[in-house]
């Protein structure tokens, strides 16, 4: 399967996931139904939600109807309600268990994946936009413009990206998910700029470009309308690689507390929260950890060009 087909099918899956993530999450990923009774439940735990006619609800691990009452058992107590006050009983299954605050891990994993993917995708398009601008001007106009832009690119490449991101994030005030996306995008354009520049250097001396220049087409029009559509393909094929790299970077930032801030879940922040009580709640980091690795591997596979 060629890279373009793989990218197409991965894109379709990602779009469906982003659209349906809120719908397929079984519980609220941010708020717990009952923090006291649902905290730190292991995977495949079943509980019961006893709904009353007055709108109240009770979370119980077991219940039994006897006479005029419904007796229930909670994590730290027991109780009863009148049978005449009972509206219905709903069974709840926590497939991946719950965290220390009683929130469903499956719902947080699904919703956190949506946030992580959005960060990676939007930041990669910002990087694509900046990288194309730098690559177009450097590759087509050459000379001093090329030298200045490439030296700026080299300066950005001289420092580890994670180090640069940490410095910028720590200096920015009022950290939000949008500022994080902008920072990641503006610090990830260098590879795209080099790809685009290399393609422009190859294409600008071809006959169709020389013909356009000979009949007086404006330089910018030639670069954007005639060369760029032919030069952009390598950058687009490498977009999944960049998205995977940005998802991994965001996960690292969230793990150390510089990424998306609580209570909004991301895969990295979920692992960070799980690390605080790893021995007692060993199941918490497994779903987000597996999905981070799987997503990066799938993105790398999508960008792989087969002979």
From TrEMBL:
Glycosyltransferase among keywords: no
Superkingdom per UniProt: Bacteria
Keyword field contains Methyltransferase: no
Matches recorded under InterPro entries: BP-dependent_transpt_permease, MetI-like, MetI-like_sf
Compartments where located: Cell membrane
Any GO CC annotation of this UniProt entry: plasma membrane
Keywords annotated in UniProt: Cell membrane, Membrane, Transmembrane, Transmembrane helix, Transport
CDD domains membership: TM_PBP2
Domain ABC transmembrane type-1: 113-303
Topology within the bilayer: Multi-pass membrane protein
Transmembrane segments: 7-27, 115-141
One Gene Ontology biological process: transmembrane transport
PANTHER family (alphabetical): D,D-DIPEPTIDE TRANSPORT SYSTEM PERMEASE PROTEIN DDPC-RELATED, OLIGOPEPTIDE TRANSPORT SYSTEM PERMEASE PROTEIN APPC
Record family assignment: Belongs to the binding-protein-dependent transport system permease family.
Name of the featured protein: ABC-type dipeptide/oligopeptide/nickel transport system, permease component
